[in-house]
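Researcher: Last one for today. Full complex below.
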Amino acid sequence: MTTHPGLADEELLRLDQQICFSLNAASRAFGGVYRVLLRDLGLTYPQYLVMLVLWEEGELPVKRIGERLRLDSGTLSPLLKRLEAAGLVRRERSPEDERSVTVRLTSEGSALRERAGQVPRRLLAATALPVEDLAALRGLLDRVTAALDAAEVEPAP
Amino acid sequence: MTTHPGLADEELLRLDQQICFSLNAASRAFGGVYRVLLRDLGLTYPQYLVMLVLWEEGELPVKRIGERLRLDSGTLSPLLKRLEAAGLVRRERSPEDERSVTVRLTSEGSALRERAGQVPRRLLAATALPVEDLAALRGLLDRVTAALDAAEVEPAP
DNA sequence: CGCAATTCAATTGCGCACAACTCAATGGCG
DNA sequence: CGCCATTGAGTTGTGCGCAATTGAATTGCG
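Model: Here's the assembly. Have a good evening.
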């Protein structure tokens, strides 16, 4: 683990500020655009992420959805309940393992995919970045995420 | 605004998925590391962001803090109330404009800066990225944020 | 087999983000 | 001057994210 030995605390503070400000701002800016694009689909951004996974897989246990999206049951349980209330998915206990709950698209949930068809194109257009830059961005993000997950940071400063 | 004309909807869907997954994951990974680093300062990550601004400025109206961090009063009011309850800041109505509330560091709030000294270094170390890559990441993030803010996305898909 | 440890979903509690609204103070305009 | 639009904080309600806990089903191990 590098410690950036050549830089003073003051410079590190500024860089840290800039990185976390920028990441926060970008995350919320994406959220804002998605919010507008998804509004008349009746989906929030996290709900859309779950639907993306389900459109790809058709059905999936809650556990697997959580692994894909890095979300735990505390977040997913109420979210899936809302998707079920909206008629987009059904949830049923798995017969072979009664602990597990399988989430399935309803026909209405599948049909929503067509209406969502232009969302990615419009979102990517809104970023105003060429595809190569988006790929580079994704690469950097994935690298930091992997590193942060692996870092095992000690609580005591 | 580019529309990526050469790519099929299916490819765009995948790229969109990857970008928003990656950004989400990175944002939450940062949050997780900050949470550990900040735990025994008694600060949450958004509270830390506010303290960073105040450590730089000393005192600031709520309005200005919101502009810096892109947060509105709905988020800041309860957050600042918690910081005040923790003894880190005071809030007082501005005499020259009774609508405005000025947030000031207490001596305890200023003192916390020393205890937070190693947070940026430890966080940057956890990213395991060289400074140049972090700068590149920040540049890309700022560019997409500016573009998304300027995009003026139409609600109707 | 029987009991303990593990796994999975759900729930509770807290804090943040955002929209919509209220209310008081201010500023501008006729 | 008087009225009305605007501005700045705060409040309410909804939903997400995470920690901690609960409870039931399953697995593993003696």
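Residues 44-47, 71-72, 74-75, 78-79, 82, 97-100 of chain B lie near DNA strand C (CB under 10 Å from a C1'). Helices of chain B lie at 9-38, 45-57, 62-69, 73-85, 107-115, 119-127, 131-150.
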